[in-house]
Amino acid sequence: MSSGRTTKMSAARVEAVLMGLRKGLSRTVAGQAAGVSKDSIRRWMERSATFRADTEQAEAESQSMLVGIVLAAAAKKLPNTWQAAAWLLERRWPEVYGQRSKVDISLDIAEAAREVAEEFGASQEAVIAEAEAILRRHGGDAR
Q: So where are the chain's domains?
């Protein structure tokens, strides 16, 4: 049964969204520029395998273009020509191009267990045993 909603999906809007994505815009901003919401784009992608593929292709073209700028600037050793493309790559696709920080975490297990035991009126041994049981249930190593 139809929800009664009319779709804004038209060839012109689809092309406007894809053009924005090719330029490196996020789906939200590409949609806004085309006069549609990011939710509409999500629904279109769910309903149309072609639109989903075209969207993914446009985003891949954008990444390729930006990486090309960085590589060309590096090869020519031109000053101050690659930073803008690198900046956009880091922010648009942080999971691929973002900086990663290594965090070193150390924890005195005995001290933490003592604090939890005090707070909840349990023994330190019981707290440690419960933590080890939780780790085992979730595939962790209690050692």
A: 11-97, 105-143
